[in-house]
Amino acid sequence: MKKEITRYKNEVNTIPMRDWTREEMNFFFAILTKLRDEGNRRIFFDKYGLAELANYSIEHNQRYEKTMENLANKIAKLTYKESSSNSFKIMPLFTYFEATWTDDLSDLTLQVSVNEDFEYILNQWHIGQWTSFELKEFTAINSTYSKTLFRLLKQWRMQGVVQYSVDDFRQLLSIPNSYKNSHINERIIKNALDDLKPYFKNLKVKIIKSNKRGNPVLGYEFTFEPERTGAWIEDKYEQTESEGPYLPFKNWLEENDV
After folding, report:
1. Which CATH number fits domain 5-123: 1.10.10.10, 3.10.580.10, 3.30.70.20, 1.10.1740.110?
2. What gap in Å lies between CA 253 and CA 69, rounded to an integer?
3. Rounded to the nearest 10 degrees, what angle do helices 61-77 and 22-35 cross at?
4. CA neighbours within 13 Å on the CB side: how many for 255?
5. Are 113 and 34 in contact (CB under 8 A)?
6. pTM assigned to the model
7. Which helix (H) or strand (E) holds 219?
8. Residue 99 · residue 69 · CB < 8 Å
9. Could you say which protein family the record assigns here (predicted)?
10. Distance between CA atoms of 146 and 17, rounded to whole angstroms?
11. Tell me: the pLDDT tens digits for 15-32?
12. Domain range 143-255, CATH class
């Protein structure tokens, strides 16, 4: 199978996906990958082609059908929000999502079309900032936290450094409020570093703490070797610098005199 490159506007990374399973995430981004450059026309997926794209092993047909149903329910609730200094807009991502199958579940077909107002988020490369990664790498990651952090770091693949405040990091990874900062480090970040090292050279994290009493955690700085342009696959790398939808953490530190 050829190397499939997933690419979309950075704002897609702000969509909360904490209650999604690994398989549902894989199918969702596999679908986004195939919708790229297709405008808003309806796209057809066959059972085995979609499973291969999403790195899904079909062992039980009923489980596959149930996964598609759960995916459809989550996609039906998805909305995309884009904001600027004086406006914001919210829109559904898809206008059509249909799965059909035979009685014995030996065959299944999926039909999907993207909202015409959302289409530019996948296709208009000359506008805005973009996240780009190899789909096969994403689908190979098991932890849903690690999968989300993979996408966030790929947003900064050309810079090799990104900082997040604690609040932004919690929101982007949909971390439960019950998790203390120590839980984030032990249960999420340490595991994610192990999961993501094959995809980011010299990946490290620095926990940024306040000088105030108790040294509360303010945020996290992730560093790795930047990816180079002109590498082994066409269009894998972008020339434009990546920007996030949040105020850069270093600016936040300066504004709050930390």
Report:
1. 1.10.10.10
2. 44
3. 70
4. 7
5. no
6. 0.84
7. strand 217-223
8. yes
9. Belongs to the initiator RepB protein family.
10. 12
11. 889 899 999 999 999 999
12. mainly alpha
For residue 182, the Cα-to-chain-centroid distance in whole angstroms is 24
What Rg, from alpha-carbon coordinates, does the chain have? Answer: 19
What DSSP line would sit under 30-49, residue for residue?
HHHHHHTTSTTS-EEEEHHH
**Structure confidence at residue 165 (pLDDT):** 96
Residue 134 pLDDT more than 80?
A: yes
Domain residue extents for the chain: 5-123, 143-255
Domains 5-123 and 143-255 agree in fold: yes
Task: Name the 3-class secondary structure at 218.
Answer: strand
**CA distance readout (Å), 130 to 5, 90, 192:** 12, 19, 22
Written as six digits, the tokens of 181 are 């900062």
Question: What secondary structure letter does DSSP report for 122?
Answer: H
